[in-house]
Every structure is written in C-alpha cells, then in structure tokens.
Amino acid sequence: MIATCRSCHQAFWRYRRDHPPSGFCSLSCHAAGPTKPKRDDVLPPKPDVVLANMVRHRLYFHFTTSLLGWYADCATCEELETDYAASLEYHWETASKELVADANYRWAQQTSSKANA
Ligand SMILES: [Zn+2]
Ligand SMILES: [Zn+2]
Questions:
Q1: Torsion from C-alpha of 73, 79, 84, 87, nearest 10 degrees
Q2: Ligand approaching nearest to the C-alpha of 70
Q3: Buried-most residue among 46, 60, 112, 114 (CB within 10 A)?
Q4: Environment class of residue 81 by beta-carbon count within 10 Å: exposed (0-12), middle (13-18) or buried (19+)?
Q5: How far is the CA of 57 from the centre of ligand 2 (A)?
Q6: Ligand 2 centroid, distance to 1 Cα (angstroms)
Q7: 93 C-alpha to center of ligand 2: Å?
Q8: How far is CA 4 from CA 21, 32, 33, 39, 115, in A?
Q9: Interval between CA 38 and ligand 2 midpoint (Å)
Q10: DSSP alpha helix (H) spans, the chain
Q11: Would you give per-residue pLDDT tens digits along the chain (117 residues)?
C-alpha cells in the first residue's frame, strides 16, 4: 500500500504492515518522529485573493482603493506585493498550462468533426 511518511511527508510503498514502523518510511524517520508538513507544500494563495487583501489593506491603512500608489515604508504593502508576485508566478504557470490544454482539445474536436463531415 502507498502511505505518506509522517516525518518527511514523502509517499512511500509499505510492503509489510509492521516494517518500517507504521506511518514512517524508514527507521530514521521513525526516530525523528512526526513533523508538521513543510511550508513548501503549502500552495501560494490565488492572485485574486492576494489582490483583494491588498485592496482591503490600502483602503483601511492608506485610505485609497488604488493599487498604483507606492508606500515604501509600509511593511504590509511590501509583504503583499511579494505575495502577489509569488502567487502570479505560481498560478500563471498552472493557468497557462490549462489554457493550452483546453485550446488543444478544442482544436482536436474541430479537426475531427471536419474530417467526419
Ligand atoms: Zn520519511
Ligand atoms: Zn500598506
């Protein structure tokens, strides 16, 4: 059976129920004990979520809904900008892959219906 190690959070194949110790991929992981999932495993929030937080923060702290202003000495603004960049970078890649797959699918549908006609 496939299991997820409670220490290193890698998937591993358990051949026997009693070895390695239940819930761990190896004896060294068992010795290390269970840990919280790594922060890398957490996906960045969606760009529109970060954007909404940005708008809310600017409204309450800078009394504006504009995203164009630059508040160099505001740590929250800086943090949100960084989050937004990371979010765009991550989700843009995912989104564009989906778009390409969708376009390819439509193209295949069109060409096959023409061939049948
Ligand atoms: Zn492990
Ligand atoms: Zn700010």
A1: 160
A2: 2
A3: 46
A4: middle
A5: 6
A6: 50
A7: 28
A8: 12, 15, 13, 16, 47
A9: 29
A10: 27-32, 47-62, 75-116
A11: 678 888 888 888 776 665 667 788 888 888 888 877 655 556 778 888 888 999 999 999 998 878 777 787 898 898 888 888 888 888 877 777 877 888 888 888 888 776 665
Looking at residue 57, what is its pLDDT? 92
Q: Which ligand is nearest to the CA of 7?
A: 1
| Residue 37 alpha carbon to ligand 1 centre in Å | 12
Q: pLDDT at position 42, please?
A: 64
Query: In 9-22, which positions are buried (b, 16+ CB within 10 angstroms) versus exposed (e)?
Result: beebebeeeeebee
Ligand nearest to the CA of 75: 2
Query: Residue 12 carries which DSSP code?
Result: E
Task: Kindly report the pTM of this predicted structure.
Answer: 0.48
* Dihedral sign (CA 26, 27, 28, 34): positive
